[in-house]
Amino acid sequence: MFGFKHIQFDAMSYVLHYKNGVIAKEGRGLSFFYFAPSSSIVAIPLGSNDLPFIFHENTADYQSVTIQGQVSYKITEPKALANSLDFTVTANGLYKKNETEKLNQRIINLAQTSTSAFIHQLNLKDAIRSAKQIEKNIEEGLRNSETIKLMGIEILGVSIMAVQATPEMARALETETRERLQQQADEAVYERRNFAVEQERKIKESELNTEIAVEEKQKQIAEKKMETEVQQAENSKTLREMKITADIAIETQRQQLIEQKTDNDRKEADTQSYVLEASLKPYKQMDWKILSALNSKQDARGNIALAFRELAENAQKIGNLNISPNLLQTILTGK
Q1: Per-residue CA distances from 99 to 71, 79, 124, 142, 296 (Å)
Q2: Is residue 72 within 8 Å of 44, Cβ to Cβ?
Q3: Who wins on pLDDT, 273 or 14?
Q4: What percent of the chain is modeled with pLDDT above 70?
Q5: Four-CA torsion 151, 154, 157, 158, nearest 10 degrees
Q6: Short-list 192, 190, 135, CA closest to 163
Q7: Helix 325-333 and helix 300-313, axial crossing angle in degrees, nearest 10
Q8: CA distances from 180 to 22, 30, 45, 186 (A)
Q9: What is the mean pLDDT of the chain?
Q10: In angstroms, rounded to a whole number, what is the distance separating the alpha carbons of residues 74 and 51?
Q11: Best exposed site among 8, 78, 148, 322 by fewest CB in 10 Å?
């Protein structure tokens, strides 16, 4: 009515109300009346945005790779962005221009610029495996970009979903990888077989070493046994020689003892013979009759025997001799 209109924004929009080229009011989620002929309204979206991107680059070996990912960002200085891009809205709250697409394209271009120099230094295989480094390069490039700072944008993060080669090259890499894996598998089989053969060789070598050690031990035992037997034989021989020597010494001593005893007995016999001869020498010239008479121990029978002897010596002188039985009985019985 008469050019006055009402407009309302949500809380995620930062509103700038320009009146005659001067900011009349600003803030988030405003709702107000304005005079359309002299007003211009700018609405900056404040929420975070996920910007997907996909672009192609060439590697150092002239192979094409496709980089796919997304950039998360949000507008932290809406007035700075309003000075760079036109986010003017109509009376119905619709943007007059699609500046969001322009903003996204600028961010994508900066991301690609941050990536291209890095990708150009890598070969295809390294580029496919460098997703994390690409993320780091894009994030650092965007955060250090003067354009991003002038537009009042904060980069929340960068994610790389895929780094892919062309289908033909991917199949070639798959074939190469498959062949390499097959080769590695064959090498693994060969290594396992070689390891098994080596282990078998070691086992046989160990068994042979064990047998050699056993034979050596048996040889040592046999030699030790022979040495023991020889030593025992030598000890037995030594013992026998010692015994024979001892027996000879004993027999020698016994012979010497016998000789000494014989000599002593001979000397003793000679002494006794000499003593006896010396003792009997005075009686040797004496008449036995006198000796008999001197024997004070001569009994009646002895005297009778002497008498009979005298009779026998003088028998030629005796004519007749009568001996009574009683006398003989007395002589024989001693009664």
Answers
A1: 17, 15, 36, 19, 189
A2: no
A3: 14
A4: 84
A5: 10
A6: 135
A7: 130
A8: 70, 65, 52, 10
A9: 84
A10: 10
A11: 322
Structural contact between residues 110 and 141, judged by C-beta atoms closer than 8 angstroms: yes
Burial of 92 (0-12, 13-18, 19+ CB in 10 A): exposed
Q: What is the rounded distance in angstroms from the CA atom of residue 310 to the CA atom of residue 305?
A: 9
Q: Give residue 154's pLDDT.
A: 92
Lookup: tokens for 124: 């295809």
pLDDT of residue 191: 86
With 0-12 / 13-18 / 19 or more C-beta atoms within 10 angstroms meaning exposed / middle / buried, residue 306 is middle
Residues 6+ apart with CB under 8 A from 283: 291
Say which DSSP state 287 is in. Answer: -
Is residue 264 predicted with pLDDT exceeding 90?
Answer: no
- Tell me the per-residue pLDDT of 110-124, one tens digit each, with 9 for 90 and over: 999 888 888 888 888
Q: Mean per-residue pLDDT for 256-278?
A: 82
The CA-atom distances, in angstroms, between 84 and each of 25, 45, 94, 153 are: 19, 14, 19, 11
Q: What token pair was written down for 145?
A: 């970009």
Contacts of 153 (CB under 8 A, 6+ apart): 73, 74, 75, 76, 81, 103, 107
pTM across the whole model: 0.52
Condensed to tens digits (0 to 9), the pLDDT of residues 36-77 reads 888 999 999 988 899 999 989 898 988 889 999 999 999 999
d(CA 72, CA 81): 17
Domains of the chain: 47-165 (3.30.479.30), 288-333 (no CATH)
CA dist 316 → 281, 306, 311, 320, 321 (Å): 33, 17, 9, 10, 12
Question: Which two structure tokens, joined as six digits, stand for 253?
Answer: 């001593």
Q: How many CA atoms lie within 13 A of 86 on its CB side?
A: 9
